[in-house]
C-alpha cells in the first residue's frame, strides 16, 4: 500500500533505481540534503516503502485516504484499514456491478475479482461507468483499466468467461477459493450483479457448497424497482429457499432474445449504492447489515424484510448447511451467527460512546454544580415534555418522537403465516 499523499516522492526514488548503487545512494542523499522543507514527506515515504500496506490518515489534499480514515477517527469504523486485506468477487460487471466495483475501488479495497464475458456496447452508455471509446472491449478489461487508473492500490482480476458454462465450473470455484488477498485464501464476499436467474442459481450453488457469504442484487426489467439481499449459507435463506416465481415454476426467463429491457442509471446507481454500503458494513463490521432491502422508485419506498431459511428448501446442500448451523447454535448459542462478532463490536462501541457522553455530562454538571441522572437506556437526564419533577426548568428535545413514529405502518412489513408451506404460498400467488 503506497501512501497516496507522497506517491510522487516515492516515484522519484523508484525511477532512480536503475543507476549504479553508489550513484543511486549519492542521489538519495543529495536529494535528502537539498530537500529539507520536504524531509518530513520524504521520511514518511521511506516509512511507507518498508510497509507498503499502510493507509495514511494524514489530512492532506493529496492523500486519497484521509477522508476514509476520518471514519475511524470519528468512531464510525473501528479499523478502516482492514479493507486493504479484503477481497470481493463481483459477478456481472454491468450497470450495477461496475458501479459497485468503482465504489469499492475508491474505498481502497484490497482486491476485486470481476466476472463478465460481455463486451462494452454503445447501448450501455445510458448507465454509469463505461465510456464510448471502450466499445468492443470486454467489460472486465475495460473496468480493470479504469479502476487501476482510479486507484492503483487495488488489485483487479478480470475473469472474462461465463460462470454458467459447465466447463468453467472448476476454474470458477478455484478463483473464488484462492481469490483472497493472502495467497491461497478464499474471497471474503461475493456480490451477484447479474441479469439472469441461471447465473444466480450457479452462484447460489457454489456459495452453498463452499460456505461463501454473498449478496444478491437486482433491478427490474422496467427499471423502476430493485433490491439487495444478504445470503449466508445455512444461516439466512438461500436463493432457492424462497425462489422468484419464474425460477420456482421453471417458466422461461423474462430476458429473451429480441426483448429490450429498460434501464435507468438512477435506479442502478441507487441499488449499487445500497449494495456497496452493505458490503462496507459487512466487511468492516459497523452499522447493521440489512438482510433484504427493496426499492420502489415510483413511491420512493424501501421495504425491509426478514426471510427465514426454508427447512424444506429444494436445494439439499442448503438443508445440510441449515442442519450444520442449527448444531452450531445448539453448541455455541448466538455466537454461532456469522454476524455475531460484528454485532457485539457495535454494541461495545455504542456502550463506550454512551459512557464517554455520560463522563462529559458529569464533568459539565460538576462544573456548574448540577446533578445528572440516567433516565433510560439512551438518554442522560432528559425527560420528554413538562418540567422537572422538582420544579426545575425543562429540557426540550430538538426532535420529539410522536405516536406516528412508534407505530410503523402495517404495510411496512410482509405478513407471514409461518405454518403455511411454500407450496401453498406459491399456489396462492399463482391464483392471484
Ligand atoms: Zn435454501
TrEMBL record:
SUPFAM superfamilies: Activating enzymes of the ubiquitin-like proteins
GO molecular function annotations of the record: ATP binding; metal ion binding; UFM1 activating enzyme activity
InterPro entries according to UniProt: D-isomer_DH_CS1, ThiF/MoeB/HesA, ThiF_NAD_FAD-bd, Ubiquitin-activating_enz
Transmembrane segments: 12-36
Pfam families with a match to the protein in the record: ThiF (PF00899)
Keyword annotations of the record: ATP-binding, Membrane, Metal-binding, Nucleotide-binding, Transmembrane, Transmembrane helix, Ubl conjugation pathway, Zinc
GO cellular component terms, A-Z: cytosol
GO annotation terms (biological process): protein ufmylation
PROSITE patterns associated with the record: D_2_HYDROXYACID_DH_1
Domain THIF-type NAD/FAD binding fold positions: 65-314
Family assignment from sequence similarity: Belongs to the ubiquitin-activating E1 family. UBA5 subfamily.
Protein name, UniProt field: Ubiquitin-like modifier-activating enzyme 5
Annotated organism of origin: Strigomonas culicis
